[in-house]
Amino acid sequence: MTNAVTTTPDQPAKPRSRIWSYITAGSSFIIAAIALIKFFDTSLPGCASTTANTTIQSILREKNVTGATLSDKREVSKDDSEIRCAARMSTPDGARFDMSYRVFRGTDGKTMVAAEWRRP
User: Fold this and answer.
1) Pure H helices in 15-100
2) Which of 21, 26, 28, 83 has its CA 20 to 30 A from that of 63?
3) H helices within 41-111, ranges in order?
4) What is the pLDDT of residue 77?
5) The Cα angle at residue 57 between residues 56 and 63, in degrees rounded to 5
6) 101 Cβ partners below 8 Å, 6+ apart?
7) Residue ranges in the chain whose pLDDT is less than 70
């Protein structure tokens, strides 16, 4: 008795399309370029940016002002080192304040926000 093992010839591998290789390489290049640009970007965030808004809310919490909302955010002036902004602040008790704040780079390179507010 002989045990015969039958095998099928290996299917030839389908050649990968070059277009997919080019698409993958191009996509990788674009993603890397965007990441590099963001890494070296030294521009300041704008008046209505998430960074500025989060920092202002943090400043308000430190001053025991909770639940305040900002509206009418606008840029007052801008140069390479700072952006000056203005906004209207409303508190839950109905009080309204004019807020001025500036976004700038600290000496350590971090983005800083300084704010002050007063009744109109």
Assistant:
1) 18-40, 50-62
2) 83
3) 50-62
4) 93
5) 90
6) 47, 52, 56, 84, 85, 86, 87, 113, 114, 115, 116
7) 1-16, 41-42
